[in-house]
Design goal:
The complex is a heterodimer of chains A (about 475) and B (about 500).
Chain A: H1 20-46, H2 53-74, H3 82-107, H4 115-135, H5 146-158, E1 166-169, E2 172-178, E3 181-183, H6 185-210, E4 212-215, E5 218-221, H7 226-243, H8 246-264, H9 268-287, H10 289-299, H11 309-321, H12 344-377, H13 381-405, H14 423-444, H15 458-464
Antiparallel strand pairs in A: 1-2, 2-3, 4-5
Helix pairs in contact in A: 1-2, 1-3, 2-3, 2-4, 3-4, 3-12, 4-14, 5-6, 6-8, 6-13, 6-14, 7-8, 7-9, 8-9, 8-13, 9-10, 11-12, 12-13, 12-14, 13-14
Chain B: H1 2-29, H2 31-35, H3 41-48, E1 55-57, E2 60-67, E3 74-78, H4 81-88, E4 91-92, E5 96-97, H5 99-103, H6 105-109, H7 116-124, E6 133-136, H8 140-151, E7 158-164, E8 171-177, H9 183-186, H10 190-202, H11 224-233, E9 242-244, E10 248-249, E11 258-259, E12 270-272, H12 273-278, H13 282-292, H14 294-304, H15 329-336, H16 346-357, E13 361-363, E14 368-372, E15 378-381, E16 386-389, H17 393-409, E17 423-429, E18 438-445, E19 452-460, H18 470-486
Parallel strand pairs in B: 1-6
Antiparallel strand pairs in B: 1-2, 2-3, 4-5, 6-14, 7-8, 7-19, 9-12, 10-11, 13-16, 14-15, 17-18, 18-19
Classes of the chains: A mainly alpha (about 475), B alpha+beta (about 500).
Chain lengths: ~475, ~500
Amino acid sequence: MSSLNPLNALPLGFTHRRRRGAELFLLLLSLLVGVGGYAAVGLGVEGAVPVDIIGYGGWLAGLCIGAHLIVRILAPYADPVMLPIVAALNGLGLAVIYRIDLAKLADNEDANTLARDQLIWMTVGVVLFAAVLVLLRDHRRLQAFTYTAGFAAIVLLLMPLLPVLGTEIRGARIWINIGPLSFQPGEIAKLCLVVFFAGYLVLHRDALALAGRRFVGIDLPRARDLGPILVMWAISLAVLVFQRDLGSSLLFFGLFLVMLYVATERPGWLVVGTTLFVAGAYTGFLLFSHVQSRVDAWLRPFDPESNSYQIVQGMYGMAWGGLVGRGLGQGDPIQIPIAESDFIFAAIGEELGLTGTMAIIVLYGLIVERALRTALVCRDAFGKLLATGLGVVFALQVFVVIGGVTKLIPLTGLTTPFLSYGGSSLVANWAIIGLLLRISDQARRPMPELSGGQDYGPDEDDATAVVSLR
Amino acid sequence: MNKPIRTMAIFCMLLFVALMLNTTYLQYVDAGDLNARDDNKRVRDAEFSRKRGAIVAGGKAVAKSVPVKDPYAYQRVYREPFKYAQLTGYYSYIYGRDAVELTENEILSGSDPRLFVDRVVDMVGDNQPEGGSVSLTIDPPAQDAAFAGLRALGNRVEGAVVALEPSTGKILALASSPSYDPNLLASHDFSEVQENRERLLEDEADPLINRATQEVYPPGSTFKLVTAAAALKSGEYRPDSIVKGGLSLDLPQTENPLPNDGGSDCGGERITLTQALMVSCNVSFGFLGLQLGDTALREQAEKFGFGDVYLQDLDGQAVSRFPEGDVDDPLTAYSAIGQYEVAATPLQMAMVVAGIGNGGTVMRPYVVDEVRAPDLSVLDQTNPEDYREAVSSSVARDLTEMMIEVVDQGTGTTAQIPGIKVAGKTGTAQSEADRPPYAWFVSFAPADDPEVAVAVLVEDAGVERDAISGSGLAAPIAKAVMEAVINR
């Protein structure tokens, strides 16, 4: 594979700069979004800056600076844009969840508030992010855990189906209870699956790409190589059938398909996979009433018969927001049921308008772009696949959830990364970012001297840098 | 592996572009339509707490918003609620809007594009945006006369009055009975509103229906004007042409002849067309219907507006109709005298006489005269618009002469106004045998240069069957409305 040669991706002699100062500057802008949003919510709803703004702002700043320091020490060459984007999204999500809390409190004094929980989850997420960077000094070590990760993914996916542990919330059996906490193991399973696919495909991609038959201009794979894709297809369908989780099912299968294609460079897999997906989705539509009702709500949202109250309220909210939005605290986002979860994008559309929603889509797009760029410059096949998988799973998730909320595709129910309320999703996504930064650090690090081997530390890095960094 | 990664990058970019386009569509392109939907609570709440513009008739507000101390800040109040209910409509939190409150909602609520600059100024100045006002074409004395005329027959009488200005199509008066109080539906006590609405819906007399425009009735003998117009237009008849009169008309394909009301012989076996209209001779007009055929009658009716929707300012205009398809001869004869399946709104019959009075040209009826910004500057004024050329001016002149005879010495003498020439036509329409007939009167005055054309329908006056007639019940109301306009 010629693409394994990094010189293919970069001009000869080019060395990435560390850009940690840029990261810090962007992080300060992100903090401005988070803390400014929090203050604006207070001003908009109650006419005064929230009393705990110092404590809250300090906490948020502490998390951001802490994350930055970890990156600066442990992954100095990591991509400088990703962390600030994530911090901005998470800060904005917190402010909007706080805003929805206030609206609920205005309605009912005993309402359950979520902003504090979410801040705690963010803290856990940042700790996990740090842990990934601390414990995992080289992403290639994950390759050793290929089958462990695959096994873990299956266990995690099965957990909600267990009698006592699993619970069904709003029709989807994707939750487990641990003491007072409920958790969506699927979010972590997503990460495990990417690791498993990357490890498995690195080993088997030659076999998968080797032989095949050409049919109407497309290289179709051999029948015996269809095994793994059929297994994955079956797993996705099982998720759909037993957990009624349309979104995750789509996500897992799409992820596998894309990674298979990237590993083998054979578009034939996409044709086979898409055919299987369409067949599976259509069968699902015919067999399951909950799939039908989602499609129905999508096609005929204004039909009083269809189960579309939430999506219609979301659309009304976004239309009401218009170009510039009502302003934080000036809209009526609790018209949308459970606005803090899947529909937080609509709540943001209402109060921050098209301007806000465009900014968010662009931020998500930048995360994906940065992940794929990392994949391009990465020097090892495992890292390439890992980064591609993480980037694509992120893109698919954003597309499925925002597309569902804005009625581009049927609503399936996934969380909006970093914005939605929900601990499992937030923690898992922080871990994903940690992993991406780790790969990025490896990829952007200057080429070690040929004799240097793999045992290089930060000090040696400076010695090998071609461009002076300070 | 870089090639497929780049392909995936493009694929992801397409996903995000699709999201951006769709979000733009939702929040910008489609936002107006979504905001205009009835069940959109956000828009409704915001509209409700905004100062809504007034609806004005003759310089006085008949509907306006007054400040109140409740979460909605403003309460819609209707002055003279029963008299103007069909025009203003209601503005209800639960049940939406009706009539002008509905059709002019964008101006009244302040969301009309023509008020864009005002909204920006309000936003910059941190003021609540205000709605603009709507002036009606209604002439209050005529409206008073129309409403009082119906009321004189009892609160529960079922009927309607429409007065038009023939030269412009302005609706000068529009009343429907029984009426209702829109204040009952505009209240902020929603459970009370719900009860009030239930009660109105359960009422067998349907007070929420605007009988002037939303309901069609057999026009009876007033439709003979359309038949006469078709006859004159054919060129084979003139006002002094001799037509068949007598006690009854033998119809083809049936044993049952078509009789006159009350066994009259219309003044002879052979009478003039003028005489036939004057005494409202069923035999003559049934005969004319057979001669002219259903196609000619339908064409003439459609030129006056049958089969069409022409009223934009009030919602739910019913379409007046002449039976479609191949109508056989006996039924054509019945159709020619406004029976069988011929049905018209009072507004439609007012348009027929207004068209005749206006030299044959029917003007498009309208009720919204001007819309104004909150600072009272005029944003838009409705221009009168030719609707259809129903008959030539010479036919219109002949018809007018014949209608003057009706009031001078025919069935419509009760509509005479001293010193003024009035042109009119009575009608007493049978519907079903067990229901009382409908009493109609249509007219315009002064006949040579009309200022007003009126149609009056009294559906159920709660009087004896024999006492129901166009001349007895309907004509006096028409007369009062015409006097109100002419003497203003």
